[in-house]
Amino acid sequence: MKKQELFEQITNSILSEIENGKLVWRRPWKQGLPANYISKKVYQGINFLLLCLDNVSQPFYLTFLQAKQKQLHIKKGAKGRQIIFYKMQSNFRQNNSGELEEDSFPMLRYSYVFNLDDIEGYEIPTPTLSAPSELLQNIILVHNPVIENNTTRCYYSEDRNLISTPAVNSFTSEEEYFSSLFHELVHWTGHKSRLNRQLTHDIKDDDYSFEELIAEIGSSYLCGLCGIENTLNNSAAYLNGWLKIGKMDKSFIPKAAIQAQKAVNYLINKTEDAA
């Protein structure tokens, strides 16, 4: 399958769920984010979205080879879920001076993983989850974002380069507070001094809908690291309005997932990997 075909498949699947009133990346993440059963690495970006579409009881996956190595049996008739990863390839070319120069580029690869629901005889792993306050303090320690309190709304100001939210006790729950703050922190990463995304306050601008989707997915990912549900009140109907542009560009949602992952990795000071 070509990259564009895969992106189109993901976009169509996500749009179908949204049109049915569901935001697939929002879950009560008590079991943790989708992760590899053996390595415990959490799946990222596009793979995170792909596996969020999966209606399973445990968010853990492994390849056929990993199951065989662990002497675990795959149930008859079980089907693997396609995921992707990038492997860097190198080419050498001769420059104008006659010297050899190395060019590196990502090569798209495909793999299939099976969920624990497809496996017999497994042990249920214990997910590693951070407390939301601990995750926030680590972000503040590394990046020192300016966060102030107001009494009315949550927002990120690009001009002032700060996040403003009501105090935690103004929210109906701590989960509401953290999901809102994580959403604004993802916006914060888009500043030109950080990841340099196109930030706009014009709701009619295509970049607005794209940035909101990045923040929506990124916030859900951060909530998942803490085992809490993203409780932001961006409804599926509202998001569906944002994504009208996505029906014209089939790479819209996968690209947003990639940018959301870059934002999350920036916030938690994590090097990107292929998962």
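the 2nd protein, sequnce then structure:
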Amino acid sequence: MKRKDILTPIGIFIGLTMVLFGIYTNGGIGGVSSFIQASSILVVLGGLIGAILINFSLKDLKLTFKVFKEAFRSDNYDLKGLIQLFVTLSEKARREGLLALENEVDEVEDPYIRKGVLLAIDGIEPEVINDIMNAEIVAMEERHQRGRAIFQKAGEYAPSWGMIGTLIGLVLMLNNLSNPETIGPSMAVALLTTFYGTLLANLVFTPLAGKLENKTDEEIFLKQIVIEGVIGVQSGQNPKILEEKLSAFLSNEQKNDLEEEEEKEQQFVGESVNGL
């Protein structure tokens, strides 16, 4: 289940706020206005867009907005619920056979889990199931890598175009050395393009690429748990052993929470039996 990730916009907002605060405290309103230069912005953004258009195909560029939105959304992974799902499937498979899982599959929303369980029901060998599902992970990783490559390249190109803008400003300044009073302001304007390029790279593009890479790692981690769960169900592992095996993917805190939940369930069952 996807939900809004407020950390991304908050991080960008805090970064911009601190930059503006640093400028304002040292130069007031006039200092802030001196950092706004249309020509410098156009050089950085124009050069950056041109380089991206050259580097990527139209197919890759169409993914940009879709991938960009993913950086502002997060997946609510319920690892404990996932483990419990495979424990339940394992119990039913051992009790009634793998074919009895067909009814359970219809209630599973995740297509990757559903595919794995269907492969297990079809009697596919564990090694083949592992190969098929890992191939899907590799394909997914490749798609995600192509999607975030635009932001990675933008993070590389932005400072370079900032430097190009600075060089343009320096050349124009050196051509007008007859008036020494203009050297300082001209140098400030020239340096603004480097400022814009560096700011975009380190506050927007590179962090977004890192965020997307972390999301891919989380999804791969989740899918690895699914593979272990499917193979465990298919091979008829004892549900308790399967639970212990899958619990290895949990953090110590998550393991403690899972143990507490199991203790509460056992206590509730015991109280219910005594009540009867």
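The radius of gyration is 28 Å. The chain has a mean pLDDT of 84.
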